[in-house]
């Protein structure tokens, strides 16, 4: 470590604009355009908030709220903003590789930065917050609770995730991000080979967002274990809740290895330790093991909730009880356990004995069994169902077909002998995009379309939804299926330039596909805009627009802050569907009680801002600031524990008034059958026209 | 009279005498157990790293040159005793003994915790004098990644004791404060558990295999 000034190692040259002024070229222009978009975006948001005088409402209703529904929505908004950046980076990378043999407009360093941020953002700041945004919104509603177990900790988790994501945005404008990929393998990311700020941005973003995610995992595990409504036994939980339990367990056990690995890398870089260095006994294999000990459970903690979403979607839009509930539960837990036994398949070629590779290869292939069970269960749910091809269902069908291809290419890769041939090629890139897009992203988008009316009280535009399904599906196939072929032909991943002319046609197809994906992203935004514009025609205040089966549909849309006026007594799996069949779906409670809910608090926002400054100070070696902010964070947390007045009471009379107003709405609404669920007369009261098929 | 249910969470709980606090603690104590499990994985991994790096001494000083077992023995006794005293504080709370008993046992625990830290830091300084600094080798990096991590936990526990002591004074024995005492006691026992791992694996293991 060298002597540093008041602002650490931060100087004028740290800003990309300095590079552009010295030497204007395409590479610098792309970097500055990205920084410019980022700055213009921030100014636009600040300007709009000021113009419409929204700072007050934003602070009171959102930033300080401890309501799990609002926190969930904020997670999703954050994820979609980050998704836009991740997709754009993907398009730039495809453009670079499509330019032709030896061509291209980016420098190698810049390309490496792009694939590093793309991977880091898509996993940690799109998939994770989107998955846990939906979970945040849904879990208490599904299990019949008023909030998560620790509402304020939930807010702090959000704060940590967002501030870490902001670091990636800051790295566009100040300094540059890591070039070491999303895995950041040392010794390349160590101080000897990479003395700049890039890996430090990665490390602190990962450590901070990782601790946020750990807190989220603890929160959801405890919520589902302890806060279920009376009668909601484990085997009556919706499958989605089961997948969130599994994900939470995976988080609790799998996030620590990531934290350990990143902090050890930080010790190497900042304090000259020798965990992973080439000299003095360092051993980078420890890093590879730790990283993938986290990394493999991570992909299941992302995809299991997507499975859960599809399970709910298939059951609802087939108008059937989910087929094979028990086998789905067992398969989910099997996948969760097996996911801890396969991490080594990420580095078959890094020098283990053949026996060890074989063991991990077989363990990997075993995961295909519970996953296959799930696929058959979903198909059996569709079989003889009364299927409606709504937007979530279309995502589900695209998922079923494409995900199986991705899964099978995974089984191929699980064979170490095959892996030796295709590792580090685009075949691998094709494989994991093939499971992450049709699996995780389609699942999340299906969930977004399915539960949107529950969150906001109006349905999303159906036509634009369908366009968006087609664009995502076609875009995915055009972009990533060609990569299987070039991968088999030997094209290495992460190469900013290539020479073999036979790759070129595939690269051009993939480039076109990238534009289709970009338009798919635009179609999602247009869908949202059109839906908000036409919201008067799609109101569903009664709350059950899809004739759905689980508890969250039995309450108003949007739900009141306390979720349930009276905590329901559960007597059946798919309790709400059973109640509708009996004609007892909207009971009028005899008495109401005072409800106490967590009060608004600014601690989450404070931690968000402070942890952001803390990370920035560490990245730029501004030690006095890092120390100051550490003390401030500790102090603000300790002072917060002295606050006793953390709950506010909603009087029973108020609850009664609101609930009875809604019950009047239920009684006056016209039931709508499934053929007309996308029509304006669907006010959210379903008329079950078929007996549930069991 | 119907007895209120007890043992709604694992570990020594507040029991029937504090029914409302006991109930209020159920969810949060369970959550704290889950947190400790996650923290345990941190330590478990650091132990694993240490074991893989025992031989990575790169010609630098090894366990036989650096470890002062007399001091380790003293630290062990101090930490185990502090676990006993925090347990006594917990019992005083559970059986409604006068509040000064809780404060007294808390203070003893705090003093023992600080003594432990002082001895530990003295050990590190001795090691540094003999060239045992983390920058010297992979083995020493692993040592300094693990043992001070436990030390930081003890320091956090001490800070917690101080803050909770103040809250006992300001708020008295409210449900919230009692529930926090339960968790602090759990945390302190957890520190002890990790220390048992450290003497067995880091010190005895290091001396045997290093």
Report the CATH topology name of chain A: Cytochrome C Oxidase, Chain A
Report how far apart the termini of chain B are: 62 Å
Give the helix/strand class of chain B: mainly alpha
Q: Give a quick account of the main beta sheet of chain A: strands, pairing sense, barrel closure.
A: 2 strands, antiparallel
Low-confidence stretches of chain B: none
Q: Could you tell me which chain pair has the largest interface and how many residues each side has?
A: A-B, 39 and 40 residues
- Helix tally of chain A equals 20
N-to-C SSE string of chain A, H for helix and E for strand: HHHHHHHHHHHHHHHHHEHHEH
Structural class of chain A: mainly alpha
Kindly estimate the percentage of residues of chain B that lie in beta strands according to DSSP. under 5%
Annotation, overall tally of beta strands of chain A: 2
The total domain count of chain B is 1
User: What is the CATH homology-level superfamily of chain A?
Assistant: Cytochrome c oxidase-like, subunit I domain
Computed Rg of chain B: 19 Å
N-end to C-end Cα span of chain A: 67 Å
Uncertain regions spanning at least 5 consecutive residues of chain A: none
Q: How much of the residues of chain A is beta strand, in percent?
A: under 5%
Cα radius of gyration of chain A in angstroms:
25 Å
Count of DSSP helices of chain B?
6
Looking at the structure, the CATH topology of chain B is Four Helix Bundle (Hemerythrin (Met), subunit A)
Q: In oligomeric terms, what are we looking at?
A: heterodimer
GO molecular function, one term (chain B): cytochrome-c oxidase activity
Pfam family, one (chain B): COX3
Keywords (chain B): Cell membrane, Membrane, Transmembrane, Transmembrane helix
Membrane topology (chain B): Multi-pass membrane protein
